[in-house]
Automatic annotation (TrEMBL):
The lineage of its organism: Bacteria, Bacillati, Actinomycetota, Actinomycetes, Mycobacteriales. Keywords: Cell membrane, Kinase, Membrane, Phosphotransferase system, Sugar transport, Transferase, Transmembrane, Transmembrane helix, Transport. Residues 114-473 form the PTS EIIC type-1 domain. It is a multi-pass membrane protein. One of its GO terms (biological process) is phosphoenolpyruvate-dependent sugar phosphotransferase system. Residues 6-89 form the PTS EIIB type-1 domain. One of its GO terms (molecular function) is kinase activity. It is found in: Cell membrane. Its main location: membrane. It comes from the Bacteria. The active site is at C28. It comes from Corynebacterium humireducens NBRC 106098 = DSM 45392. This is PTS system mannose-specific transporter subunit IIBCA. GO terms for cellular component: plasma membrane. Residues 646-667 are annotated as: Disordered.
Length: 667
């Protein structure tokens, strides 16, 4: 039987229009990101019906994000193993810049933010790992074991080596950014990496210090420290894209591999050193100085504005430029003033999902308990807000009314203490020591967290209709579980049904001691159970039998029987035939999500019915419109009590679709 991960991966592929509709597939820390040929083929409601899917966001005209949480890499790998699914490096031949992204009026704005997002996304893991190493060193500083900001030549070799472990990411960050930015644009990623790498070599550094001027090719070159910079490699990658495009037009394709990279390096490294690099540093410094001016004018105001902006920036992917500015601030100022206030947004977000978890525990809401617990753990320990955002915040009406007060209160506290970060870290419980003053930061995130958490606990996170619907669903699940448990107990303790009296003409009377043949309970084509797109049914976990692709709209009793259970939603009915055979008829797959729409229940639980009695009437068009398969499993749920249960795919009208043979000792 396929794992839940594989099943979900297959479900995603099916509901986005199939593997042939995917032009490219990647993932970040929490989201599957893909480009599609035709976005209109996406069945968003069906996608979100899978409990593993936390949310779906359409981007631009072709982009799609499916939020999966911290286990996204497993789902990504499972999707790659499915036939016809392209991976990161397999993209459509078109060079169109219709990549999706922020849904704005102008496509170039959309692509600009998508470019920034997809440039930093692949580096996210390395940045997160480095930020936790920084946290360990800051903790060592806090406990007096070493001075985090002391010159390296004054520190013990062990700590020098640990500094090298995190500096490797930030010092060579331009190389990583150069590679990912070039790849996003369609240029050669390794040439994109080589351009900023040239400005980090010992030979370049030996020419002088930052601010000095060297004479190269008879021209003055202003030297800069490019370690940790992000804007110069971004701009260089854009330049490389145009240079490569021009070179490929004028150089014969037979020698592209040799001369395109040769001339690209020959042109772009000097262009970056003389012009693009200093310009990129100027851009980064300009934005940083502007925000610094606001911070110098009133840290209090900035500390309130930042956490109130983030809840609207993150869903659109607009927070990535601010991440670049944080890194820029640390490189130019030695500290950053955005990360601290940003922590107020993060912890207000985590407070909301913690409140949701507490409410869910009280309500015995298993689905929301799992979603909120995952979001809370990813947030508090990893500083990642997407599982909370897409799993809870963007799904329910009242959540932002609980979130924003926490952001505001936390921002006020942050503003009072003028929090600064001395290293780029993800704001989680583990990175508190990177903030200064850390006690003020703790008070700020605690204020944000508990404000939002208590607002959820006292006033809920849903509108009245949402809450009523959720409570009704929970009650229905409880009732169904109770009925199932009663049936299991009955099956275990009740003796075999006695042989019935002589039946009426034309009605099958079944006994445990004889071979039982069951005819189709509805019109349609009889197929093997393995064709059902659900692993539990297809693998026989719920019993052996067949499935029917219905052409009719009514389920009939195939023989005299007792109705063991009939779902209020009308999607399933369980019968006990007179010979002790328990028959389950399940109309469609995941049709319980329709909430009874399109189904009419014609019988009641415990009702005695005759062969041919109508049980359920359903609307195949509504099932199809809702995006669910109408294929109907018909199976013997107590298969283990019999010697064999054999399905007959292809059986015609009036022929047996299932044969039940008793165990030998019962014959």
């Amino acid at each position: 039987m396929a794992s839940k991960t594989v099943t979900t991966a297959q479900h995603i592929i099916q509901e986005i229009g199939g593997a042939e509709n995917i032009t490219s597939l990647t993932h970040c820390a929490t989201r599957l990101r893909m480009q599609l040929h035709d976005q209109s083929l996406v069945n968003q409601e069906a996608l979100e019906s899978d409990p593993a899917v936390l949310g779906v966001v359409k981007q631009g005209t072709n982009g799609l994000q499916v939020i999966m949480g911290g286990g996204v890499a497993d789902f990504y790998q499972a999707m790659l193993k499915e036939p016809g699914v392209p991976g990161t490096g397999e993209k459509a031949a078109s060079t169109s810049k219709d990549y999706g992204g922020v849904r704005g009026k102008y496509s170039w704005v959309d692509y600009a933010f998508e470019f920034l997002s997809d440039t930093f996304r692949p580096i996210l893991w390395a940045l997160l790992g480095a930020s936790l190493i920084i946290t360990l060193l800051v903790l060592a500083d806090t406990f007096g074991l070493q001075d985090f900001r002391a010159p390296l030549d004054e520190q013990p070799d062990t700590y020098v080596f640990m500094h090298a472990m995190w500096r490797s990411v930030f010092y060579f960050l331009p190389i990583m950014v150069g590679a990912t930015a070039a790849r996003k644009l369609g240029a050669n990623e390794w040439v994109g990496a080589a351009i900023p790498a040239a400005l980090l070599t010992p030979e370049f550094l030996a020419m002088g210090s930052a601010g000095d001027t060297a004479t190269v090719f008879g021209l003055p070159m202003v030297l800069n420290d490019y370690a940790g910079q992000v804007f110069p490699p971004l701009i260089a990658a854009i330049g490389l894209f145009w240079v490569e495009k021009l070179l490929k037009k004028i150089i014969p394709s037979a020698v592209h591999m040799v001369f395109v990279p040769f001339f690209s390096l020959l042109i772009m490294i000097p262009a970056t050193a003389f012009l693009l690099g200093p310009f990129g540093i100027g851009v980064g410094n300009g934005i940083s100085h502007m925000l610094e001016a606001v911070n110098n004018f009133s840290p209090f105001i900035l500390s309130i504005v930042i956490p109130l902006l983030y809840p609207f920036l993150v869903p659109l992917g607009l927070h990535w430029p601010l991440n670049a500015i944080m890194i820029q601030n640390i490189n130019s100022l030695g500290y950053d003033f955005i990360q601290g206030p940003m922590g107020a947004w993060n912890f207000a977000c985590f407070g909301v999902v913690t409140g949701v978890m507490i409410v869910s525990l009280k309500e015995h809401n298993k689905a929301m308990r799992q979603v909120s617990l995952g979001g809370m753990m990813a947030g508090l320990l990893g500083g990642i807000s997407e599982p909370s955002l897409y799993g809870v915040l963007l799904r329910f009406k009242k959540t932002y009314m609980r979130l924003l007060p926490g952001c505001f209160v936390g921002g006020v506290v942050m503003g009072i203490f003028n929090i600064k970060a001395y290293a780029f870290v993800f704001t989680s419980l583990l990175t508190i020591p990177a903030m200064d003053p850390w006690l003020g930061y703790v008070m700020g995130i605690a204020a944000a967290f508990f404000t939002s958490m208590f607002l959820v606990i006292f006033f809920d996170y849903r509108g009245k209709e949402e809450k009523a619907e959720a409570l009704a669903q929970i009650e229905a699940e409880r009732a169904a579980a109770s009925e199932a448990e009663e049936e299991r107990i009955d099956a275990a303790v009740l003796p075999a049904a006695p042989a019935a009296a002589a039946p009426a003409a034309g009605v099958a009377t079944l006994t445990r001691a004889e071979v039982t043949e069951i005819t189709a309970p509805l019109e349609g084509r009889v197929v093997a159970l393995s064709e059902v797109p659900d692993p539990a049914f297809a693998g026989g976990a719920l019993g052996n039998g067949v499935a029917i692709e219905p052409s009719g709209d009514t389920v009939f009793a195939p023989a005299d029987a007792k109705v063991l259970t009939v779902q209020k939603s009308g999607h399933a009915v369980g019968l006990r035939l007179e010979g002790g055979v328990d028959l389950l008829i399940h109309i469609g797959i995941d049709t319980v999500q329709m909430g009874g729409e399109g189904f009419e229940v014609l019988v009641e639980k415990k009702q005695e019915v005759k062969a041919g009695t109508p049980l359920i009437r359903f609307d195949r068009e509504k099932i199809a419109a809702a995006g669910y398969p109408a294929i109907t499993p018909v199976l013997v749920s107590n298969t283990r009590k019999f010697g064999s249960v054999e399905g007959h795919p292809g059986a015609g009208q009036g022929e047996a679709i299932i044969t039940v043979t008793p165990k030998e000792e019962q014959a």
